[in-house]
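Dear colleagues,

As part of the handover before I leave the project, I'm documenting each prediction I ran so the next person doesn't have to rerun anything. This entry is a single chain, and its sequence is reproduced below.
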Amino acid sequence: MFNRFLNRTLRHTTLALSLMGASALWAQTPSTEVQWLGQSAFKITTPGGKTVITDPWLKANPLTPPEYKNLENLGKVDVLLVSHAHWDHFADAPALALMHHVKMYAPGDMNQTATLLGILPPELLPRFNKSGTVEPAPGIQVTAVHAEHSSVLVWKNPSTGKDEAHVGGEPLGFIITLENGFKIYHMGDTGVFGDMKLIAEMYKPDLVLVPIGGNFTMGPTEAAYALKAWFKPQAVIPMHYGANPLAKGTAAQFVDAMKGSGIPVLALKPGERAKF
């Protein structure tokens, strides 16, 4: 049964038990595919065949499967989302934007900085901000929501060869609504904040992509607290762990912290896919 919504069987026992509870919900309409590529990078294939890429740090990401170090292997990109300007979220986004001539949706002030620095042409750098909703591809809506983090754009000045720190705008999370109404909450980099309760009540996400690494974001305990307190998704996928030695949170710790929640935890390995 598991193969109906996972591209291969996940052998982690606790995860398998979680999937048993979720399978009945998705068995009849497996129409959305979510692939984790390490850190906060995901490739989401929508029911309408569109491809959404989030926070594409791929070439230098130690967790990204080797085949995706070649950006062309992602295939076509229809929607490109960057939650904030830190390099482990932004690094490969300009190359993808140019390759596919697709707009990079990111914090408004981050894109203003990228425009002024000439990182991308202005037509590929739309501006929007928290509570704003855009339709970057037909039938797909993206709403920017708060994230409790920081953001700075580090850029190597070609005339001096030195790195410079520039305004990165305020970090975002994204509510991604697909053609069939399925809602994915990509939290971005964030700590726990009280208005997560409001986000849960307003948008009622079906799937939550949650950072668990700690040090820079929530750790496993904080992430589990937020989900247990406010959210009722069909599933949750942990992200933003394992790539940086300072972010010590693990999937096993998160699975343990989520016990009793009733929320299936899909602890994907980099390159693995889940279908909904």
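Confidence is low (pLDDT under 50) at residues 1-28. The first helix runs from residue 13 to 26.

All the best with the project,
I.
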